[in-house]
C-alpha cells in the first residue's frame, strides 16, 4: 500500500519487504500448524499475536531498512541506476 499511494519507498525496498513478510508469515503459520495466532516470548511473558500482524511489521521494517540502505548507497555515488527514465513520445494515431 505504501508504494501505491506514496513515494516513500523504492521498488527494491518494497520487493524485499514483500518477500520477508510473505515467507516469514508463511513459515510462522506453517510452524504453528496453520493456525493464525503465534505465541511470542517477550522477557518472561508469553504474548499471543496474529501471524499477519507479525508479517506486516516485518514487511514494513524490512522495506524501511532496505530503502535507507539503497538511498545511502545512491548518495555515496556507488549506484548509478537512478538515472532518470527516458522521455516517452506519444504514438501518432492513424492518418485520416
Structural notes for this entry:
By secondary structure, this protein is of the alpha+beta class. The protein has one domain. The protein has helices at residues 2-5, 11-31, 51-75; strands at 37-42, 45-50.
Provide keyphrases for this structure:
single chain, 96 residues, alpha+beta, two-stranded antiparallel sheet, 3 helices
Summarize the structure.
By secondary structure, this protein is α+β, with helices and mostly antiparallel strands. The chain has helices at 2-5, 11-31, 51-75, and strands at residues 37-42, 45-50. It has one domain.
The N- and C-terminal alpha carbons lie at a distance of 44 Å
Helix count equals: 3
How many β-strands, per DSSP?
Answer: 2
Largest sheet: 2 strands, antiparallel
Order of helices and strands: HHEEH
Low-confidence segments, ≥5 residues, pLDDT <50? none
Portion in beta strands: 5-15%
**Cα Rg:** 20 Å
How many domain modules? 1
* Mean pLDDT, all residues: 81
SS-based structural class?
alpha+beta
Shape label = elongated
Which sequence of strands runs across the widest sheet? Answer: 1-2
Helical content class: 40-55%
Amino acid at each position: 500500500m505504501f508504494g501505491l499511494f506514496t513515494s516513500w519507498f523504492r521498488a527494491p525496498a518494497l520487493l524485499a519487504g514483500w518477500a520477508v513478510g510473505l515467507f516469514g508469515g508463511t513459515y510462522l503459520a506453517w510452524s504453528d500448524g496453520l493456525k493464525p495466532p503465534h505465541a511470542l516470548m517477550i522477557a518472561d511473558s508469553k504474548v499471543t499475536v496474529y501471524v499477519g500482524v507479525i508479517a506486516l511489521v516485518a514487511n514494513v521494517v524490512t522495506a524501511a531498512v532496505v530503502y535507507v540502505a539503497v538511498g545511502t548507497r545512491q548518495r555515496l555515488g556507488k549506484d548509478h541506476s537512478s538515472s532518470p527514465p527516458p522521455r516517452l513520445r506519444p504514438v501518432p494515431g492513424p492518418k485520416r
